[in-house]
Amino acid sequence: MSGHVNAIAKAAAEAVLRDRMHVAAIDMPPTVSDALDAWIADQPNPKPSRQEVVREALTAHLKTKGYLT
Question: What is the tens place of the pLDDT at every residue in 34-51?
Answer without folding.
Answer: 999 999 999 999 999 999
